[in-house]
Amino acid sequence: MSAEIKFFDQVNAHFDRAAAFLDHPKGLLEQIKTCNSVYHMAFPIEKDDGTIEVIHAWRAEHSQHKLPTKGGIRYDHRVNEDEVMALSALMTYKCAMVEVPFGGAKGGIRIDRRNFSEAELERITRRYTYELFRKGFIGPAVDVPAPDYGTGPKEMSWIADTYLALAQTDVNALGCVTGKPVAQGGVRGRKEATGRGVYFGIREACASAADMKKLGLAAGLAGKTAVVQGLGNVGYYAARFLADAGVKLVGLAEREGSIANPAIIGEGANGPVTAEASDRLYRRGVMVIPDMYLNAGGVTVSYFEWLKNLSHVRFGRMEKRLEERTNRSLLEVVQKLTGKGLSEAEIRAYSTGPEEEDLVNSGLEETMVTSYEKIRAARSRFREEPDLRTAAFIVAIEMICGTYGDMGIFP
User: Fold this and answer.
1) pLDDT, tens digit, for every residue of 88-100?
2) DSSP 8-class letter at 44
3) N or C: which end of the chain has fewer CB within 10 A?
4) Pick from 111, 54, 63, 64: which is nearest to 85 by CA?
């Protein structure tokens, strides 16, 4: 029987492979890899039939080199301490790589949500929030959860409401969690953010003529085919945006069955490929666009939501009307110079200022584009080019080391 593959060990194997390209003190690298805090809690909840069930849950804060820490909460019967530690580490490196100023965290509750009523799920969520609050593992300046596998805006609204009741004097209390409904301080565009980020990332990878030539492909998305495994929130929106860009979807796999494509792989999930498998794929010439870059859309837009909560102003409110007036003035000048008239409907269409969702999507696109440029630049620095995952880890490690250096704690 083969030994169990520990998720956290796999993340550290990726880290070590990247660290070998760099010249940083061993102690500093060990500090970056270490999971700073893990809280395992067990609490009872009363089920609808009056019976009591003990619930096990975790919250891991991998790195406090930036505060608050940030990471989702998943509800799944397979949740365990190793998993939340690994996922919190990936969040640390993901945030550093895309320059979102958070440390990494992750949480999970070990339940199969199909076995619980909505009322029971609400009681579990609120009690979990209380336990986090009691131990100082939640707050807009401390640790900010978000949705993950098995959770969504409804669970985040329960968390926010519970925190508001516990921290009544915190004016920034809504910033304690992201992925909330828009009516409760959420941001437009958050639901589809991770899938949209996957699309932006794949688009950037396919835009490189040199990289595509190595795979025997032309640059660009048009005419390419894709198979999407899993049609949850991420898979659905990634498939939709890819299809809109001219990609032909030739397979959509769910738990009932799956189809594999041996040439193009983009990791929308967290840690779907082991370190050994990643190395084998690279040696076979398969391009793997790594998870810590490709699914960073969620945390990027969560960052925008957090900023909105702290500023107490929705995006676009300050500048929308000014931009509309400026654009209208420019259009009027162009009409005079060209002698071509536009209808009022055309003027409105061309001059309308950005809405909140427009600004959020623009910020997400900018993040994904510039982050991929940094990954390609890091890869090209070395005589033996590392794969994209290793290059992404290199970018993240150097960002974190720079933070410690700025703090004067480490050389």
Assistant:
1) 999 999 999 999 9
2) E
3) N
4) 63
Q: What is the C-alpha to C-alpha distance for residues 315 and 254, in angstroms, rounded to an integer?
A: 37
Give yes or no for a cis peptide into 68 (omega within 30° of 0): yes
Q: Are residues 275 and 296 in the same domain?
A: yes
- Does residue 13 lie in a domain region? no
pLDDT, one tens digit per residue, over 256-306 is 655 555 547 666 667 777 777 778 877 777 778 888 898 899 999 999 999
Kindly write down the DSSP assignment for every residue of 209-232, as one continuous string. HHHHHHTT--SSSTT-EEEEE--S
Q: Determine the structural domain holding residue 135 and report its residue range.
A: 37-184
Instruction: With residue 399 as reference, give the H or E element that holds it.
Output: helix 388-407
Which position has the token pair 């960073």? 296
Q: What's the rounded Cα separation, in Å, for the pair 69 and 81?
A: 17
Other CB atoms within a 10 A radius of the CB of residue 277 amount to: 12
> What distance in Å separates the CA atoms of residue 39 and residue 81, rounded to the nearest whole number?
9
Return the H-helix or E-strand segment holding 69: strand 69-75
Which residues are annotated as catalytic?
106
Q: In sequence order, what DSSP letters do the residues of 347-386 get, joined into one string?
A: HHHHHPPPPHHHHHHHHHHHHHHHHHHHHHHHHHTSSSPP
d(CA 301, CA 193) in angstroms, rounded, equals 6
Closest to 162 in 3D by CA, of 134, 186, 190: 134
Quick one: which H or E segment has residue 61?
strand 52-61
pLDDT under 70 in the chain at which residues? 1-3, 254-263, 265-269, 405-411
Do 127 and 45 form a contact (C-beta atoms < 8 A)? Answer: yes
What is residue 22's predicted lDDT score, i.e. its pLDDT? 93
pLDDT of residue 44: 97
Q: How many CA atoms lie within 13 A of 233 on its CB side?
A: 18
Q: Which of residues 272, 289, 315 is at a domain's end?
A: 315
The model's pLDDT over 189-247, given as tens digits with 9 standing for 90+, comes to 888 898 899 999 999 999 989 888 888 888 998 888 888 877 778 888 888 898 888 88
Tokens of 253: 């796999």
Find out whether 375 and 392 touch, Cβ atoms under 8 Å. yes
pLDDT number for residue 268 = 64
In the numeric block, the tokens 């009322």 are attached to 119
User: In this structure, which amino acid lies at residue 133?
Assistant: F
Specify the amino acid at residue 209: A
pTM of the predicted model as reported, rounded to 2 decimal places: 0.86
Domain count for the chain, please give it. Answer: 2
Pairing of strands 225-229, 103-109: unpaired
| pLDDT for the residue 256 | 60
